[in-house]
């Protein structure tokens, strides 16, 4: 009897983050026998002024995952924070069931939202913030430059939080980069979660993606 192969994991990272930010997480997954991919989103390329946004990120992730499923892989997408906006927009039509009905092998079998934004068509990260009347808090958390690139004002407090050793927190924060802040204002046009099985990981102490969101 053939042993079932594990699905391929694609981590779609959050704003300011890059693949190396997740080294501890991805190392654990690889140690557990998973193949893990963490493509770097173009909006985190640190260009000044920014030259990539949600559309660019969407195109990259769609092409990346499409190449995996076209090779017959089953994929689980793990989306973190802004990565939920990207994955929601990018992975429609790539579900295993949809592809199977077209006679195609491979497909995305699961969407895992890890304190990430799973909005409806026309929604964005900022529209969710506005829905809760919190738009006035954005300048307190995000430091926007004149070219609309941004950094987090307090990554240790807002992204890391208490309970982490200083050395690990410093390594995490030092990996973060400047991001095209306009990406969080741009609306999704597709919703992959309408077609693919979803798990949502709620984080009760997240200071950027609040539990209420």
TrEMBL record:
Record domain AB hydrolase-1: where: 9-207
Source species, domain of life: Eukaryota
InterPro entries the record matches: AB_hydrolase_1 (IPR000073), AB_hydrolase_fold (IPR029058), Sec-Metab_Biosynth_Hydrolase (IPR052897)
SUPFAM superfamilies: alpha/beta-Hydrolases
Gene3D superfamilies registered for this protein in UniProt: alpha/beta hydrolase
Designated name of the protein: AB hydrolase-1 domain-containing protein
Organism whose genome encodes this protein: Cladonia borealis
């Amino acid at each position: 009897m053939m042993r079932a192969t594990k699905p391929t994991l694609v981590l779609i990272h959050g704003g300011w983050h890059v693949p190396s930010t997740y080294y501890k997480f991805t190392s654990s997954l690889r140690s557990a026998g998973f193949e893990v991919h963490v493509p770097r989103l173009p909006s985190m390329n640190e260009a000044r002024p920014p030259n990539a946004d949600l559309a660019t990120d969407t195109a990259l992730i769609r092409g990346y995952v499409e190449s995996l499923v076209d090779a017959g892989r089953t994929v689980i997408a793990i989306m973190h924070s802004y990565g939920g906006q990207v994955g929601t927009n990018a992975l429609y039509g790539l579900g295993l069931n949809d592809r199977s009905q077209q006679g195609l092998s491979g497909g995305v079998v699961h969407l895992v939202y890890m304190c990430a934004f799973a909005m409806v068509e026309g929604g964005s990260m900022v529209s969710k913030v506005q829905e809760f009347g919190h738009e006035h808090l954005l300048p307190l958390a995000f430091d926007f430059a004149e070219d609309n690139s941004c950094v987090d004002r307090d990554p240790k407090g807002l992204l890391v939080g208490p309970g982490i050793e200083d050395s690990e927190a410093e390594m995490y924060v030092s990996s973060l980069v400047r991001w095209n802040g306009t990406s969080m204002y741009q609306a999704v046009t597709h919703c992959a979660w309408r077609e693919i099985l979803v798990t949502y990981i709620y984080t009760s102490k997240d200071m950027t993606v609040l539990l209420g969101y």
